[in-house]
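Sorry to interrupt, but I need a hand with the structure work. Can you supply me with one protein entry, sequence and fold together? No commentary is needed, just the two lines. Leave the record below and I will have a look.
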Amino acid sequence: MNKAIVAVLLAAVVGAGIYLYTSRPDPQAEPDATGVPPGAEKPEEPPRYYVPVTDAQPSVGPDDALVTIVEFSDFGCVYCARMVDTLNELREQYGDNVRIVWRNMPADMHPNAEAASRLAMEAYSQSGDEVFWQVHDTLFDNIEKGLDDEFLQDVAREFGLDPAQVLDGNAQASVVNEDIELGVKLGLPGTPVYFVNGIEVQGAIPRPMFRSIVEHEIASGTALVESGVPKAEVYATLIKDGQREADPLPDEIEAPDLEYQSK
């Protein structure tokens, strides 16, 4: 496995409060208030990234949720499709504590993924969040069809969109490109990638791990609210000092050879 991905996964686990011990703790010792046994070193939490959320991105969940998950995803990516149920489960389990925000990251290796992103974003532009997520579910539910032209045309017509305008023109191309540019700036190696209150989580991770990360961030948000930060400002407060771009990879790690679709 790529060392960079391993590092991020470990960081995600640490961020969730599942600590890795660098020394053997006394098995008889009582943990402290953080849950770390005496004699064990608590590592630093992973960095947060500045990932802005505006009205230009489709979302589900309240704006003042304690946890904002920004997903960079690709309608042609099977791993992204596999995570749909996980994200839905998080919304069901944690309710108004979680907001999910969509950003497009179509890769060249997935034919018509960029066109699918433009279709979904045009649905959002014309009809808002509810219809966007309906298109989102339709595209991922039928991913085995390969996003071929006929299928995308049928989806466009189903949701009252002009197939020629959406699929053959440049409708929403600039919006999709802005997402891609942000993803490249953040150094995303592929999809799916999630920023949970700014903490980067890569790949189709197990549900228990994702739940742990969300619960950790609910606690982070709750602490801010108790300190006097309005709920509506929790996300902005957590990410305001976050990294604006990815750190350079170490010399021994090669950058992924990925190309992203844009017009």
About this structure: The beta strands are 59-60, 67-73, 98-104, 193-196, 199-202. The chain is about 45% helix and 10% strand.
